[in-house]
Amino acid sequence: MTTRAGFVALIGEPNAGKSTLLNRMVGAKVSIVTHKVQTTRARIRGVAIEGESQIVFVDTPGLFRPRRRLDRAMVAAAWGGAADADIIVLLVEAHRGITAGVEVILERLEEVAKGHRVALAINKIDRVDRPVLLGLAEDLNSRFPFVETFMISAEKGYGVDDLKAWLAHELPEGPWLYPEDQIADLPLRMIAAEMTREKLTLRLHQELPYQLTVETENWEERDDGSVRIDQVVYVARDGHKGIILGKKGETIKTIGQLAREEISRFLERKVHLFLTVKVRPNWLDEAERYSEMGLDFSDGNS
What we know:
Blueprint: E1 4-12, H1 18-26, E2 44-50, E3 53-59, H2 69-84, E4 87-93, H3 100-112, E5 117-123, H4 130-143, E6 148-151, H5 160-170, H6 188-203, E7 212-221, E8 227-235, H7 238-245, H8 250-267, E9 271-279, H9 287-292
Parallel strand pairs: 1-3, 1-4, 4-5, 5-6, 8-9
Antiparallel strand pairs: 2-3, 7-8
């Protein structure tokens, strides 16, 4: 039996549904999903098996107009992930159509996608009527030579199996790149940190989630099969620390409990989670923080 394996880059605007689609394809939660934009920072790879094919997904940060160093590094990582992939899938939200952001992505695809097959996935199809959907598909295909177009709802699962089957068939022949039981190539320490960051992002408001990062400082396997995890939440200002801690520490306590439960479900064992909040005014300009997130610090300079 011939095996196939390769990399698939999911690209699109923030909130287009890339992380939701990745998690559904892989069948486990490897990329954090929130209602806030710019949640995905690292190029998280999820590994899905379809028949004799192994599909390695590169879940890139959403493409947007960068303002800060972190933004620039995220956008560079997204385009880098696309350039390195065997197949690129552009996600466009059905109800938003061709936004200014999608226009920019289509223009950039012309240069980045040379020699790549690019498929179009129109997501959230349950939000619009069929004539609107068909018109959008026609318009997008007139602007770029997509090899295939898929109508999907990543959240509800519509059309996802068709997309997955097509990707499996289109990947190059070759041996699998990862062990069969591996679903992501991120270290567990980073996955755990991302899960905690998701809880912080959902709980906090306005700009604060983009001013913080979470790192797993210590990971201790215990004799009883449980694991002790110590994590640090880095924030840029003293005021942010107070918000995260909350009145009498209630906010951080709730976040820690929710994160512990989720990490425990993911690892399928008992977790002892300890969170500390530290103020690091310049963490957004520290090379070390970027390497923790899988981003290239130098990409933020341009």
